[in-house]
Amino acid sequence: MNSGSFGEIYLGIDLRTNEKVAIKVESKDSKYPQLIEEYNVYRKIKPGAGVPSVYYCGETANWNCMVMELLGDSLETLYNKCGRKFSLKTITMIAIQLLHRIEHHHNGSHLHRDIKVSLTIEIFKTEYTKSMCRIILIGWTHLKLVNSSL
Description:
Blueprint: E1 2-4, E2 7-13, E3 20-27, H1 35-44, E4 54-59, E5 63-69, H2 75-81, H3 88-107, E6 110-112, E7 121-124, E8 132-135, E9 141-143
Antiparallel strand pairs: 1-2, 2-3, 3-5, 4-5, 6-9, 7-8
């Protein structure tokens, strides 16, 4: 599905539920392994709207892997699908939701140091909610100091 300096992402199927999942893998020999740390951040952040579910994280002889909820298109892909135009209402709704996602992440005692447009974002609808976005904020996350004078 995707690859980069972080490793590779594959499409998988949960054999119990028959749902599609994302399988992230990285070599244990990676210069800057991040997958296990990413999993630990997901574990520490309270579940909430916009936080993808992680089903498994483990390792083999040569690989670290994490199985998680399959997210949708990036914001850039959605923007391209819409002819590179969003209405003011759409931009406002996305901005409000992204601020809530970032706030939820930061309230989980983590600060993100690399927020940018290319973050993976999924816009989805369920029968109970209007459009909602989820955001991946794990890459450059660090534990923040609580009650710090900074």
